[in-house]
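Deliverable D5.2: sample structural annotation.
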Amino acid sequence: VVRVFHDALLARQAWRDAVMSRSNGRCVVTGARAEVCHHVVTQQVCRRKGIPVWDSANGIALTRRVHDRHHSRLEPIALDLLPPYVLEFVAEHGLETYLERTYPTTDADD
């Protein structure tokens, strides 16, 4: 049990490092220094669909405020702010409908 827990921590840390590196440690929404990493497709959905949870293509770097506001649904991250590599990951796994339900599009008239 300890070995499995240790391996999971290492996988999580490697995922976080890769996600942060991909965006140079900057929030993909605001450009400010990122503090957290976010699974675009939730870990639960990944597990249910047999998709690797720690694939860095399913992660984005965010400020804590952006992350918290997304999860509270006060200000969900807009679909058009997601990087191309995330969209490729989603398409590869056939999860476009999930993405459209979870990440709103911005209205061009705003």
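Annotation notes: The chain has a mean pLDDT of 92. Helices lie at 2-22, 43-49, 64-71, 84-92, 96-102.
The annotation will be released with the project's public dataset once the embargo ends.
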